[in-house]
Structures
1.
Amino acid sequence: MHDIVIVGGGPGGYASALYAHNFGLSVALIDDERPGGTCLIRGCIPAKQWLYVAEVFSTVSHAAEFGVVTEQPSLDWAAALARKNQTVEGLVRGLGGLLQKNGVEVITGYGRLAGPGKVEVESEEGRQTVEGEAVILASGSHARTIPGYDFDGEKIVSSDHALDWPQRPNRVAIIGGGVIGCEFASFLVDVGAEVHVFEVMDQIIPGSDAEAAKQLQRQLQKRGVKFHIGVAVDAPKVGETVVVPFGEESVEVDVVLVSVGRGPNTDDVGLNTVPAEVDQGFVVVDLDTMQTAQPGLYAVGDIVAGTPQLAHVGFAEGIAAVTHIATGRPRAVNYQAIPRVTYTHPEVAEVGLTEAQAVERGLEVETAKHVFNGIGRAIIIGDNQGFAKVVSEKGGAIVGAAVVGPQAGELIHELMFSVGWEAMPDEAAAFIHAHPTLSEAVGETLMSAAGRSLH
Ligand SMILES: Cc1cc2nc3c(=O)[nH]c(=O)nc-3n(C[C@H](O)[C@H](O)[C@H](O)COP(=O)(O)OP(=O)(O)OC[C@H]3O[C@@H](n4cnc5c(N)ncnc54)[C@H](O)[C@@H]3O)c2cc1C
């Protein structure tokens, strides 16, 4: 009998397993592959490695603008793929070592709940029942598709396949202009592919600040991405190439990448053996504790109903669940201050409410904005498009922020504090930013939000 049995070794599951050692709890972690999950093996990490390959390629291609003369670079795709695999392997192995060091028993096999406190594990060796005082379900998610676009791994692919393409595709249609679709568009166009992005909503990265999404779209368009916004595609014609029809028009490509969202892995995890509530496949939990309707059964990560599907949300929810198991006290995640980053070039990073969401909630808000155009550091690095934007309640605290531009994913974190601590613009603007840094764009925005400005 363990203190905690965890099903799924992605960020939600492995963070729970690692954190449990703070309380001296014994843990069994069940995964049907090596722990790492979507994030380490076919998500965040490999996707960001490919984006960095594109960044290096682009930097070298434009080196002459800085007086550095090189041959036009070419891309050794096999070497880039090997680099991606090496990064993933290093992190997966490192995680394995950490779990071992923390005394976590890793069990390889497929786990299903088999009543309160029981998980039946199926593996090549047979079946065994693993028991725990508490069970955390962290089985993660899988790529969804749309009718007519069943994945075949070659012509119609998900991000899982695209991260392992053996060579660069020449022409790609991306169905879905959300975070994953835009990240692939940014990477592919920068390494020379022809890219079409289809988005059925009226903006890319739906739900994001509309101005930030427009800025990203404009910059990707300038580099050659063709956007089809507010457009629903019809079923494709798959042959040597793939024809993607939409309305009276169509595009012909070599491969279609479908990125229309991710569904929870909860169909076959034994949820029918416990009285936990499930909503369209997602597990309903008490967000103060991550506990389901079945006492002692917790859910964290991408399977949780109504919380963002992000690795760091999985980490935070794992910490919340383990804290409740160990202490009986809630340690709720502050969902209001979770940074959300799209790692395109330029990056788009947000925290808290967008202006539109704040208005929808009936808040009277004001916004302040500062562009990167005049920021010395941005000019030095030749990457000075975009802006920082702060949304605050009229006469009140900062409720949200967006940054689109160089290093936005790093810069958003000081705004995370502002939103998380419900800082007044004047309080946040009182701090001095070093010169010349990109973070001056944030400093200047905060000053404007406080009713003053410098440049
Ligand atoms: C291309 C891509 C890029 C992404 N980039 C980012 C990013 O930059 N930043 C970010 O925050 N998020 C990103 N994400 C999302 C992030 O990967 C997920 O939010 C995160 O991995 C969810 O963690 P999880 O623990 O809930 O589930 P997962 O990571 O999906 O892990 C679940 C694990 O459980 C195992 N499993 C499932 N069912 C069972 C079972 N019954 N028995 C045993 N094992 C089981 C699976 O094999 C898997 O290892 C990205 C996702 C994709 C696809």
2.
Amino acid sequence: MRAMRLENRVRTAFFFTSLFFSAGVGIAQKPSPNDLVVITNVSVVDVRSGALLADQTVILERNRIASVGPSKSAKYPRNAPSVNGHGYFLIPGLWDMHVHLVFGEWFPGAQEITLPLLIANGVTGVRDMGSELQTVQDWRNEIEAGRLLGPRIFTSGPMLDGPKPRFPSSIAITTPEDGRRAVDQLKLRGADFIKLQSLIPREAVFAIADEAKKQEIAFAGHVPDSVRASEMSEAGMKSFEHLIGVFEGSSPNEDEFLKGGKTAGRFLATYDPARAASLAALLAKNQTWQCPTLVWERGGNLIDVTDFEKDGRAKYVPASWKNKTWKRFTDEILQGYGADDISVRKKFIEKELEVVQLLHKAGVPFLAGTDTPPGVYVFPGFSLHEELQRFVAAGFTPLEALQTATLNAARFESMEEQLGTIEKGKLADLVLLRANPLEDISNTQKIAAVIVNGHYYSGKDLEKMLAGVEGSARRAN
Ligand SMILES: [Zn+2]
């Protein structure tokens, strides 16, 4: 990779001026990160205001956005490599705020599969919600050094779970002391935040919250089974995943649910709009972020009526993901349906969208996340685009949906000065689209080029990247 880029740099001056202009964004050559990259005459999507700024020239210098402004007054060296962005739309790089990069041994080959799939789909940042910490930190160092292609990563390292964790990459927590020790150690090892799972005993949950506050490290994840959503919000939990706790808290049976027996049917039967509204007000007051993983919520609830054989993206993942890990999850999910038949589960999927809109209207902030790859047939990169479409199905405008994967992610990670919008001085993580995402959110899938930390990947580069993933997936079989 590195050698190729250096070679490109040498040839830049004549290559780009001659070829880039004639063939637009289709050119496979990519500029070195040390060079300027100029995107001319492009429509810039301001994801803060929803404004579409026509005919802009965006100048990238190394890994930063050096300037954004009207093309007619843009100044840059004549021989700088440039891309004619006429007819294209530029958005900030996308974030998937719920992934698992390394899930024990359950998704082998993730480095060759997940990382390039994310980039090829314009996902230039991820929040890793449970992984092998050392491995992910090593990847992050390689990515930062330019030796490995991948997104920016925030990671929790291993997840805290109950005495018998359900998943790999977990730490068993039985007592409050276990919880405090785990927080201390993860903080020491450089985890960015603490991820909670469902089975942590109640006393330990509050010890973890308290210790995390003392250590000034955020905690996020599942509202544990034994604790109310309102309690976790008040304890300062930064984000809830999968809407866990929200239906429980919208039911007069909440205290019963703390002991178990949660099903979609019971949630629907006991849903109380007044309780839902007061929980929404509390989550808004505390600005408790919601990462509802809507694609996976739908997928999990429809798993028995979905024909995965037909999914054209299946070629990008190794057979063991499909035949072992996803098969295992599928079997568990089918067991878990209990008495909820397909009509109940379909109603529940719709109810989740309604609740998401209710929370959104109440002022609760949202993040786009997919739970890839533990979500069955939830694909790295590809599924993030579907998640944006689910937000629109819930009643978000395309702009609001786009914000969940750009501006909101940057705000959540306290990176708004660096990322989240296309503005001078920010890091150059960008996606060039062939159609306007503000008109139709599914246009985020029409990717013409991806810029990661200043590196330009053309459509041809991305095709090659995908072909490479396909090969890796086949070899891993
Ligand atoms: Zn997850």
